[in-house]
Recover the amino acids of this structure.
C-alpha cells in the first residue's frame, strides 16, 4: 500500500488560487492520514501484529511509505482505542489475545445491544423493520459454505442497522468500537460453526421487534451473542494457531472491514 503525503504540488497550485481555496492541502493531508489510519487499524484488527509484539516503527513506516510522524499519530490513536499498549522501554506493543479481556468485551457488547434493541423497538418505523426483515431473509439464502468473512459482514451489518434504528449515535459508535476489537475472534468463531445459527436468531429478533415485544428482546440478544469464558478460550486457542500459521492457513487478510449495510441489496 502506498501513501502519498507529499503536498508540494498542491502548495504550488495554491499560488495561483484564491485564498478561499487554501483549505485544499489540509484536506488532502487529512485524507492521507485517514487512509493511513485505516490501513494500520486493519492490520491491528487482523492481528498482523502478533500478540505482544513490539511495533517496529521504522520498518512499518518504510513498508507503508510514510514518515514516522503521521504513523506515530496513528499508533497513538490505536493505543487509545485499545489495539496497542505502550512501554517506556519498548515503544508500542500489539495487544494481547487474552480470553478474559475478550470475555469482558462480549459482556459489554451484550449489555450495549440490550439497550440498542430496546431503543430500536420503540423508535424504528414499520418500514425500517420491513427492510430489516427483507435483509435477513436474503441473508438466509447465503450458502452454508460461504466464506466466514462474508457471513461475519452480514452479521455486523444486521447489528449496526439495529443500532442506527435506535436513533442514538453513541450506540452506533460504541458498537463499531467493540466490533473492531472482537472482529478477529468472531471471524474464528464463525468458522467453527456459528454460521448455521446466526440468521435464524436474527429472524427471531426481527419478529420480536415487529411485535414490539420490548421485554423479550434482551433475552434474545443475549442468547444470540453471549459467550462463556470457556467458549472464548477455545476460540482463542484456534486464533493463535491461525496467527502463527498463516502461511499454511487461510490468510488473515481475508478478514476486511465490514462494508455491507442492511439497507442495501446484496
Amino acid at each position: 500500500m502506498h501513501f502519498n503525503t507529499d503536498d508540494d504540488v498542491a502548495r504550488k497550485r495554491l499560488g495561483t488560487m484564491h485564498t478561499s481555496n487554501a483549505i485544499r492541502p489540509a484536506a488532502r493531508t487529512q485524507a492521507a492520514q485517514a487512509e493511513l489510519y485505516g490501513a494500520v487499524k486493519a492490520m491491528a484488527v487482523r492481528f498482523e501484529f502478533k500478540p505482544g509484539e513490539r511495533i517496529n516503527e521504522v520498518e512499518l513506516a518504510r513498508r507503508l511509505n510514510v514518515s514516522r510522524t503521521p504513523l506515530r499519530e496513528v499508533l497513538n490513536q490505536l493505543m487509545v482505542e485499545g489495539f496497542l499498549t505502550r512501554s517506556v522501554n519498548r515503544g508500542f506493543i500489539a495487544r494481547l489475545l487474552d480470553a478474559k479481556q475478550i470475555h469482558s468485551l462480549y459482556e459489554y457488547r451484550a449489555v450495549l445491544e440490550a439497550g440498542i434493541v430496546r431503543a430500536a423497538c420503540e423508535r424504528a418505523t414499520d418500514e425500517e423493520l420491513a427492510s430489516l426483515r427483507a435483509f435477513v431473509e436474503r441473508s438466509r439464502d447465503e450458502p452454508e459454505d460461504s466464506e466466514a468473512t462474508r457471513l461475519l459482514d452480514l452479521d455486523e451489518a444486521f447489528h449496526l442497522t439495529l443500532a442506527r434504528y435506535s436513533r442514538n449515535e453513541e450506540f452506533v459508535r460504541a458498537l463499531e468500537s467493540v466490533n473492531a476489537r472482537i472482529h478477529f475472534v468472531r471471524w474464528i468463531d464463525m468458522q467453527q460453526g456459528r454460521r448455521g445459527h446466526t440468521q435464524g436468531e436474527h429472524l427471531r429478533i426481527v419478529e420480536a421487534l415487529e411485535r414490539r415485544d420490548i421485554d423479550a428482546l434482551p433475552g434474545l440478544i443475549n442468547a444470540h451473542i453471549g459467550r462463556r469464558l470457556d467458549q472464548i478460550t477455545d476460540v482463542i486457542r484456534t486464533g493463535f494457531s491461525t496467527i502463527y500459521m498463516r502461511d499454511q492457513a487461510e490468510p488473515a487478510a481475508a478478514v476486511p472491514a465490514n462494508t455491507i449495510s442492511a439497507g442495501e441489496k446484496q
Notes: The longest strand covers residues 84-87.
